[in-house]
């Protein structure tokens, strides 16, 4: 798989009018450095934001455009920006880019940082201006060594051009930007765990409230946004709200475009910038080319390992949060994975739950103890040593670890694929029960908070 696989030439004709994130990409996949980026209208949006727009107008424009977070949660970006304090006396504020892309089967942010580092820097510069933040950090997944090298070079180029540092564009506004590489923890995708890690603390999620907009990095107001989210900002500022909204397909409640992809045994695994509202079938058949010869599609996940499994008959769902929600799961990161007919679902889930159990921060009991318990049961079923009641116990764990039962969203995301796999492929789990096994008592029904 390559990070530059953008589909059949007759389907992909990237232009500024239709592909705001990817039209500047080079065909040879080399990074777009400062001179080339500027020649391709780079930093024009930043100059417009500094010269012609009040800071609050930038926030309102992003809010009106309907930009939502592209990291998986989908929270409205303008609304999050609006939570930052209005008090001008608070002169220490931080902008934090979440580049800790640890979600399995997801590599969209990596492509942007490796090939278009200045797009992210421009997005952060405009965002910093809007939020009155004087310092920014790109919290980068430690394994992304190429991205780190390219981002650091791009930061130095922007400094040399007077676009970072003191008195940017003669505005009197100062903004410093630093690339910070993490030590490698999935939980750092949660914004408060990321903040703790940046401060040199254990990467545990914090209790909320207070939210980062009030108490974030070193106790100061902080806004945390995903890489792809920030990369959308320049185009919105340059070309306006109405144009940005027009990019999405009819029926989509999400605006703009999205980096989407397909991995697995498909003919053309890759990554494409597509309008929200495109159907999963178009993504799978027209762009990914369908399954390789000799394989059939058994199931698919729409957006990373933490999203539920769907069946081939769900491919007509539109790729936006509400469209995928209608068929019973979440869009997540928008990079789908195809599961072929040779894959045993019990083995696949055991592998997934091992990952999630290992990546738990251990702060709360359901996640710390429940995920390893699910791994133990799945290993028994995988080896044909399961007992009567094991499947019911797994379903009980899905309930105990569901939304609202744990300190953060790690455990609910971990068990969502497990619950959906049992729902659609229960017979494969039943096949792992030993013929002479003794029954075990099922888990009690989970207590519903607030019931």
UniProtKB/TrEMBL annotation:
> Which PROSITE patterns has this protein been placed in?
COMPLEX1_51K_1 (PS00644), COMPLEX1_51K_2 (PS00645)
E.C. number: 7.1.1.-
What GO molecular-function term can you cite, just one? NADH dehydrogenase (quinone) (non-electrogenic) activity
Q: Which UniProt keywords apply?
A: 4Fe-4S, Flavoprotein, FMN, Iron, Iron-sulfur, Metal-binding, NAD, Oxidoreductase, Quinone, Translocase
Q: Which cofactor does it need?
A: [4Fe-4S] cluster; FMN
Q: Where is the NADH-ubiquinone oxidoreductase 51kDa subunit iron-sulphur binding domain?
A: 346-391
Leader sequence residues: none
Q: Catalysed reaction per UniProt?
A: a quinone + NADH + 5 H(+)(in) = a quinol + NAD(+) + 4 H(+)(out)
Q: Which InterPro entries match?
A: NADH-UbQ_OxRdtase_51kDa_CS (IPR001949), NADH-UbQ_OxRdtase_suF (IPR011537), Nuo51_FMN-bd (IPR011538), Nuo51_FMN-bd_sf (IPR037225), Nuop51_4Fe4S-bd (IPR019575), Nuop51_4Fe4S-bd_sf (IPR037207)
Coiled-coil intervals, chain numbering? none
Q: Does the keyword 4Fe-4S apply?
A: yes
Q: Which family does it belong to?
A: Belongs to the complex I 51 kDa subunit family.
Q: Could you tell me what this protein does?
A: NDH-1 shuttles electrons from NADH, via FMN and iron-sulfur (Fe-S) centers, to quinones in the respiratory chain.
| Protein name (Swiss-Prot/TrEMBL) | NADH-quinone oxidoreductase subunit F
Q: Species name for this entry?
A: Pseudomonas canadensis
């Amino acid at each position: 798989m390559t990070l530059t696989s953008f589909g059949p030439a007759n389907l992909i004709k990237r232009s500024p009018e239709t592909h705001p994130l990817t039209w500047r990409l080079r065909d040879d996949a080399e990074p777009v450095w400062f001179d080339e980026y500027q020649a391709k209208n780079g930093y024009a949006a930043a100059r417009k934001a500094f010269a012609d727009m009040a800071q609050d107008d930038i926030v309102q424009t992003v809010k009106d455009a309907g930009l939502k977070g592209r990291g998986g949660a989908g929270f409205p970006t303008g609304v999050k920006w609006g939570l930052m304090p209005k008090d001008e006396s608070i002169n220490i504020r931080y902008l934090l880019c979440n580049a800790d892309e640890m979600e399995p089967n997801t590599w969209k942010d990596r492509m942007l940082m490796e090939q278009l580092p200045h797009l992210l820097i421009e997005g952060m510069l405009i965002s910093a201006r809007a939020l009155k933040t004087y310092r920014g950090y790109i919290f980068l997944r430690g394994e992304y060594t190429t991205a780190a090298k390219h981002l650091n070079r791009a930061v130095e180029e922007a400094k040399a051009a007077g676009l970072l540092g003191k008195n940017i564009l003669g505005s009197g506004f100062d903004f410093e930007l630093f690339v910070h590489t993490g030590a490698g923890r999935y939980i750092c995708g949660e914004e408060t765990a990321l903040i703790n890690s940046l401060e040199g603390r254990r990467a545990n999620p914090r209790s909320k409230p207070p939210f980062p907009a009030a108490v974030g990095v070193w106790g100061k107001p902080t806004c945390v946004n995903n890489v792809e989210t920030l990369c959308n900002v320049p185009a919105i500022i340059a070309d306006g709200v109405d144009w940005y909204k027009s990019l999405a397909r009819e029926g989509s409640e999400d605006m703009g475009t999205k980096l989407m992809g397909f991995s697995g045994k498909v003919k053309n695994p890759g990554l494409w910038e597509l309008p929200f509202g495109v159907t999963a079938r178009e993504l799978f058949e027209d762009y990914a080319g369908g399954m390789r010869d000799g394989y059939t599609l058994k199931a698919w996940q729409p957006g990373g390992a933490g999203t539920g499994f769907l069946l081939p008959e769900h491919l007509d769902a539109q790729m936006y949060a509400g469209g995928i929600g209608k068929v019973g799961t979440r869009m997540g990161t928008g990079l789908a994975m195809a599961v072929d007919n040779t894959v045993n679902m019990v083995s696949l889930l055991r592998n997934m739950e091992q990952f999630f159990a290992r990546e738990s921060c251990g702060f709360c009991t359901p996640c710390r103890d429940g995920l390893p318990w699910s791994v133990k049961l799945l290993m028994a079923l995988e080896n044909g040593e399961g007992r009567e009641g094991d499947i019911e116990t797994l379903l009980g764990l899905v309930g105990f670890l569901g939304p609202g039962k744990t300190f953060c969203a790690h455990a609910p995301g971990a068990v969502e694929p497990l619950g959906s796999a049992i729902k659609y492929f229960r017979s494969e789990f039943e096949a792992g029960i030993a013929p002479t096994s003794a029954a075990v008592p099922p888990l009690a029904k989970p207590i519903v908070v607030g019931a």
